[in-house]
Write a structure and sequence with these properties.
244 residues, alpha/beta, Alpha/beta knot, 2 domains, 7-stranded parallel sheet, 48% helix, elongated
Length: 244
């Protein structure tokens, strides 16, 4: 996956009502390497905001303030709305949303500036604001209480993007059919050497095969297991020779 620069993401807070939330959002942004904060008709940026921001005051200080949502999104190439309200039928296409897992799989293919839009604490985004966005993102939450705190919602989205772009697991070389057969053969020999009950052998071999199938061992893990099995078999055979 091509690494998209996180500087191309813009967090847009629409009419945030509480200074503490703005500060908490700034702190989340610094936690996950996001720098661009746009505020649309925000509340008074006071001491509480700076206190909640902790060491992310620089994000607050350079945040851009707009008097309308339209002005804030003028330079954006792609807009992502967030909302806790969702319709389950196709009759209300405006609020049909995608899950955050699907969102993070595709968003890095988009070129240009991407605006992540978060609405008011008490109401969220208006329909006309959602209509200006390209997609709507949903963070699954309990039906008993759908609405997330503003800073919590921002944190979840930014964390998901941060992980996707920074934690790309290295390709793991898994074992092939030859190695698997050798591993199963060693396990079978081990059962024979310890005089494992014949009526249990077949089921135990199947169980081991299923466990290994779920584990999908790497080459390194395979060689480690083979080394352990080899030493166990060697010890058992040596003990048998000494006994007789």
């Amino acid at each position: 996956m091509d690494k998209k620069n996180l500087d191309e993401f813009y967090i847009i807070l629409v009419e945030p009502k509480y200074a503490g939330n703005v500060g908490a959002v700034a702190r989340c942004m610094m936690n996950f390497d996001f720098n661009n904060l746009y505020l649309v008709n925000p509340c008074n940026i006071n001491k509480e905001c700076l206190s909640r921001a902790m060491h992310a005051n620089s994000i607050i200080e350079k945040a851009e303030i707009f008097h309308s949502f339209a002005n804030a999104i003028k330079t954006m190439d792609y807009l992502v709305a967030t909302s806790s309200i969702e319709y389950k039928t196709d009759k209300k296409q405006l609020r049909n949303s995608i899950l955050i897992e699907d969102f993070t799989k595709k968003i890095f293919e988009i070129e240009g500036k991407i605006g992540l839009v978060f609405g008011r604490e008490d109401y969220g985004l208006y329909n006309e604001e959602i209509a200006l966005c390209d997609i709507m993102l949903k963070i699954p939450s309990s039906n008993e209480y759908l609405s997330l705190n503003l800073s919590h919602a921002v944190a979840i989205v930014l964390y998901s993007l941060f992980i996707k772009i920074n934690y790309i697991p290295k390709e793991i070389r898994s074992i092939g059919s030859v190695e698997k057969e050798k591993l199963y053969s060693f396990f079978s020999n081990l059962l024979d050497e310890i005089n494992y009950p014949n009526h249990k052998k077949d089921n135990t071999k199947i169980l081991f095969k299923r466990v290994m199938g779920r584990a999908m061992p790497s080459k390194w893990e395979y060689h480690t297991l083979m080394g352990v099995f080899s030493r166990i078999l060697g010890k058992i055979k040596m003990q048998k020779k000494q006994k007789y």
